[in-house]
Amino acid sequence: MNDQPGLTSLAHGGGCGCKLAPSVLRELLAGQPLAQAFPQLLVGTETSDDAAVYQVDESTCVIATTDFFMPMVDDPRAFGRIAATNAISDIYAMGGRPIMALAILGMPIDKLAPDQIREILEGGRDICHQAGIPVAGGHSIDAPEPIYGLAVIGLCHPSELRRNADARPGDALILTKGLGVGIYSAAIKKGALDQAGIDEMVASATTLNKVGADLAKRADVHALTDVTGFGILGHGLEIARGAGLRLRLRLADLPLLSRAAELAEAGFFTGASVRNWAAYGAEVALPEGLADWRRHLLTDPQTSGGLLVAVAPEAADAVLAQIRAAGFPLAASVGHAEAGEAGIVVE
After folding, report:
1. Of 9, 106, 154, 212, which sees the most CB atoms within 10 A?
2. CA-based Rg of the chain, rounded to a whole angstrom?
3. What is the pTM of this model?
């Protein structure tokens, strides 16, 4: 094992930083058939939501998603745990509960020992066990770079489905996890993050977003999405576009991992952060003279990030307390939605 290469050395990118830029993805999906041809398909690709949702009957919706990527840490078990947590999050972000998963595995079998690959799978299985679901099968291929993730199936009652497009004017915005995962990943790539920092990042990225299913039972929670590869701005824009609203985010209130600001100011950021801003910067108003490193906190790709929650303003304090009590100590109220042209204003 000690003679084996580190996982991150075998990949050109890592985590949700591997995602295609938002503008590229929109171009590729342009002209795809609309869901209207399938009336039971309640959520498809129209609003860039977290998962597909198909209504089976009056009391049951099936939620389906898939997510996989290349490693952003060298520890195989940690990579498996992060990738699994990230994939399952899409179910919670729709207000559902997962019921089973299928593994997706691509490995350079000439470069990695079987024990390393087994550890990746075991890490994913650990997280699925925490979520109370089986890994019921999967598919594997020989690939030039290590890839791992899950396809996940979940269920919800139609009344508990939470789209990213249903925010309302006046809604308070709550973010459940600290930002900075991509910045930490960039520091790991350059050997500039100590073990305590790696442990902090892994702990955040392996915290299941189970609270999403509980929040969806509240009528005053209107919209949910998870913040992943497009950063807080990119996923906030998906809410804004879907609902036809303007979001205002308070820069000073955004929760951060403990060293995120320090590392960003020192120049650690990902290529995905740059691509993100190029893709959607025209739809964002930043404070005049904002330093580039602060902007990278806003465009930083989050691997297995937190939930962005749109909640009626009168319930915001109660919902924030519920989220923190569920194991999200960094959760914070970060802004609000208002009538206006779809976009984001950062204050």
Report:
1. 212
2. 19
3. 0.91
Q: In angstroms, rounded to a whole number, what is the distance separating the alpha carbons of residues 254 and 274?
A: 20
| Chain-centre distance for alpha carbon 67 | 10
Q: ∠284-287-289 over CA atoms, to 5°? A: 115
Contact by Cβ (8 Å): 61, 55: yes
Between the alpha carbon of residue 74 and those of residues 80, 88, 189, the distances in Å are 11, 21, 10
Which structure tokens are listed for 114? 């079987």
Nearest to 233 by CA among 329, 141, 301: 301
CA angle 271, 256, 66 (to 5 degrees): 55
Q: Do 188 and 308 contact (CB within 8 A), yes or no?
A: no
Do the Cβ atoms of 261 and 326 come closer than 8 Å? no
Which position among 16, 18, 128, 156 bears the catalytic label?
A: 16
Long-range Cβ contacts of 40-48 (<8 Å, 24+ apart) = 42/158, 42/161, 43/94, 43/161, 43/163, 47/163, 47/164, 47/165, 47/238, 47/241, 47/242, 48/164, 48/238, 48/241, 48/242
Contact 269, 301 (CB under 8 A): no
User: pLDDT of 227-284, one tens digit each?
Assistant: 999 999 999 999 999 999 999 999 999 999 999 999 999 999 999 999 999 999 999 9
Q: How far is CA 64 from CA 47, 56, 117, 153, 329, in A?
A: 16, 13, 26, 5, 29
Q: What share of the chain has pLDDT > 70, as a percent?
A: 90
The pair of three-digit structure tokens given for residue 234, joined into one six-digit string: 């990119």
Residue type, 97: R
The answer to whether residue 128 is catalytic is no
